[in-house]
Amino acid sequence: GTSVLYEASNGRTYKIDVLDMIQLNLSKGTRRNVHRHQGHGKNWSMWQYEAERAEGRNYTHSKTTLVQYPKEVCIALEDRFRHVRAAASLAELEGAQAVDRQRAESAWRRKLASFNGQRLREVFAEVPTAPCAEEELCAGALASEASKDDGLREVLF
Description:
Mean pLDDT: 79
Structural class: alpha+beta
Number of helices: 5
Radius of gyration: 22 Å
Number of strands: 6
Strand content: 15-25%
Shape: elongated
Strand order of the largest sheet: 1-2-3-4-5-6
Low-confidence stretches: none
Helix content: 40-55%
Distance between the termini: 26 Å
């Protein structure tokens, strides 16, 4: 996805969308603009949201000020932002097929990561120790799936 969920110190939960650059308060439904500022060395970025303040404060006529997110949130936002940009670049360069392949790889990586060591040994054992249910993977089914699925082949090999 394009968003990060953030629970603030005030107990409120926010959904921050790095594509739309909007912060949504999930309990109240209020929206705020989000800003990303690239650092000088391009190794870091600062993420901020617009907050209201009293007009004329600090000798300005603006009713808004930019407030920086906590470091952990900035890191998560930057990671999500780069992921979204990479997917968009990939789609532009290689088309929708490449994006579909990347999604398939991610799905297979998540599935394989959910297995414990014993289950992985059973899947890759020459002779499975337990029958293979339809929704599970076993060596024969995995080989069959890999012959048809580029994403799975990429993850396995």
